[in-house]
Write a structure and sequence with these properties.
The structure is a single chain. This protein is an all-alpha fold and 231 residues long. The protein has 13 helices and no strands. The longest helix has 26 residues, at 199-224.
Length: 231
Amino acid sequence: MAPQLAADLRELDATWQESAQVCTDAAWAARAAGRSVLGLLRPEQIRAPGPDPITDRAFRHLYLSGLRFDFRCPTLQSLVDQLEPAVRESMDCYSRALYAFALLGQSRPEGLTLIDDVLVEAGDHPKTLQVLLHGLWLGHQLPERAQRMLEIAARPPFASRTDPIVLFRESGALRQLGRHEEVLEAIDRALDLLPPGDVSVHADLVREWSLITASQDLHELAGRAPAGGSR
């Protein structure tokens, strides 16, 4: 699968945006089917790129996306850190977004600096913005995390609010800011937009709904507690 996909992208002289779209969807489809692109490539193929830049980029997009979907942030960071400096500095925008994801997912503040650099080049490329949102969603200890997530979620590709995953990320940011009613609205909208049978994302949304309703219940109980009560 991986060599053929890379060959097709090379034949088409694919841009980094096209490679990101195809490779991310392929990595997700493999995972959803109970397989993984990580079993089709070796880390050495990422660390020691060959003579064809489009093939190298496709392999990198596939493998790093596989690590992303497995939430293997330290491994992803380590793999990119092992690249030759010249290779690392010349990485395309989407590869740098995946590296930012690895840092953000570990709540490392240098990931926030990298976000700003990636956004300049990424513009409104949806796949890149989704990677950054994913990293921020994982990085619970990052400063201004929620506000940054909402800023990305408000960018033009998501303005129609028809992407259930983006709405799910948005709901987490809103919950952190205490905007409970907006959380429930985002979750209800996301649930309506889910494809039939999408069990995994449905479970995430229901869990988020449970968190916000539990938080509301705690606030109500705290408001009814007698002054000077035991703690």
